[in-house]
């Protein structure tokens, strides 16, 4: 999964360029008035977008994250300090050089700084009079460490424990397509499916058996919760709160949509969760009660992406 995150192939570079052009073509957000209210005669209250200031972003191994973060910072008028993982240091150095070389002098080439040493992070985290926001993109441990070491506001999420719940009324052909895409398309991504929840009535049905056969054919290793372990004889999972980031996932059976919601809110990471169902009432209940940044009905978790949402890119969730 580490190598998959670090690799920058031609197709990925092309899609990165397209996402940057999408950001560039957006309406300039700075000084854009959101609301204007005359609260009393000749006393006007105006609400508008403005830059946050200087951002310190500490991110994981993916070098394409550097490009997306830099593009968003430039577009939103923010200064930026970047610290990438040591395993992608050469790629990050080259990408930083490319980006800063095309920033006009009127803007300033020092708008985006690249921090190369891990030792400098501790000193930077003390600069609450200079840096306005820290965004750590990495493990839960990293996010917790950063929060504990600084007075600067921290915007952090760590895990991507995404669920797909197949309801008893689901179209199983659709379910198979969605689950395969959510797990197999890019398993190292934070929006890949890590846990598959299935309504108990679908256990031992032809549709579910076909789906499990397809996952096995793709090389996905399935671990079971207590019920799935007993009935399907698959290896038992140690914890439901686990992000594989590889060709493996957890499977468990639940009693109904409410049980699925309770499971997700207890063990999930509030990233992206999906329900597959033809029952509108069940779908509405799921969409309203699952407390995640993105909640989908009959769509792959892989659609949770800034570019897919028409935003060009994203930092965090």
UniProtKB/TrEMBL annotation:
Alphabetical list of SUPFAM superfamilies matching this protein: ALDH-like
Keywords for the protein's UniProt record, in alphabetical order: Amino-acid biosynthesis, ATP-binding, Kinase, Multifunctional enzyme, NADP, Nucleotide-binding, Oxidoreductase, Proline biosynthesis, Transferase
A matching Pfam family: Aldedh
Any Gene Ontology biological process: L-proline biosynthetic process
Pathways per UniProt: Amino-acid biosynthesis; L-proline biosynthesis; L-glutamate 5-semialdehyde from L-glutamate: step 1/2; Amino-acid biosynthesis; L-proline biosynthesis; L-glutamate 5-semialdehyde from L-glutamate: step 2/2
InterPro entries reported for this sequence: Ald_DH/histidinol_DH (IPR016161), Ald_DH_C (IPR016163), Ald_DH_N (IPR016162), Aldehyde_DH_dom (IPR015590), G-glutamylP_reductase_CS (IPR020593), GPR_dom (IPR000965)
Reaction equation(s) it catalyzes: L-glutamate 5-semialdehyde + phosphate + NADP(+) = L-glutamyl 5-phosphate + NADPH + H(+); L-glutamate + ATP = L-glutamyl 5-phosphate + ADP
Source species, domain of life: Eukaryota
Residue ranges occupied by any Aldehyde dehydrogenase domain in the UniProt entry: 11-203
PROSITE patterns on file: PROA (PS01223)
One GO molecular-function entry: ATP binding
Assigned protein family: In the N-terminal section; belongs to the glutamate 5-kinase family. In the C-terminal section; belongs to the gamma-glutamyl phosphate reductase family.
Full protein name: Aldehyde dehydrogenase domain-containing protein
């Amino acid at each position: 999964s580490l190598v998959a995150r670090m690799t920058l192939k031609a197709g990925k570079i092309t899609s990165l360029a397209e996402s940057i052009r999408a950001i560039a073509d957006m309406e300039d957000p700075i000084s854009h008035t959101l609301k204007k209210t005359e609260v009393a005669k000749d006393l006007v209250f105006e609400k508008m977008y403005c830059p946050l200031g200087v951002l310190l972003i500490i991110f994981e191994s993916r070098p394409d994250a550097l490009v997306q973060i830099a593009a968003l910072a430039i577009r939103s008028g923010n200064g930026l300090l970047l610290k990438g993982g040591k395993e992608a240091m050469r790629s990050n150095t080259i990408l930083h050089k490319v980006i800063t070389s095309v920033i006009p002098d009127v803007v300033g080439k020092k708008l985006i700084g690249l921090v190369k040493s891990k030792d400098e992070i501790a000193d930077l985290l003390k600069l609450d009079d200079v840096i306005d926001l820290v965004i750590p993109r990495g493990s839960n441990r990293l996010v917790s460490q950063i929060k504990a070491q600084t007075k600067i506001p921290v915007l952090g999420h760590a895990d991507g424990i995404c669920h797909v719940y197949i309801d008893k009324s689901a179209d199983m052909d659709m379910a198979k397509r969605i689950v395969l895409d959510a797990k197999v398309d890019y398993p190292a991504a934070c929006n890949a499916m890590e846990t598959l929840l299935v309504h108990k009535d679908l256990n031992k049905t032809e549709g579910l058996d076909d789906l499990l056969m397809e996952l096995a054919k793709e090389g996905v290793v399935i671990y079971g919760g207590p019920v799935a372990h007993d009935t399907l004889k698959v290896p038992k999972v140690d914890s439901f709160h686990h992000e594989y980031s590889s060709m493996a996932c957890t499977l468990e059976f639940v009693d109904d949509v409410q049980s699925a919601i309770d499971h997700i809110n207890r063990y999930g990471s509030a990233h992206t969760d999906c329900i597959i169902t033809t029952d509108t009432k069940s779908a509405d209940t799921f969409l309203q009660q699952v407390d995640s940044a993105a909640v989908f009905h009959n769509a792959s978790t892989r659609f949770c992406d800034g570019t897919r949402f028409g935003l060009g890119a994203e930092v965090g969730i």
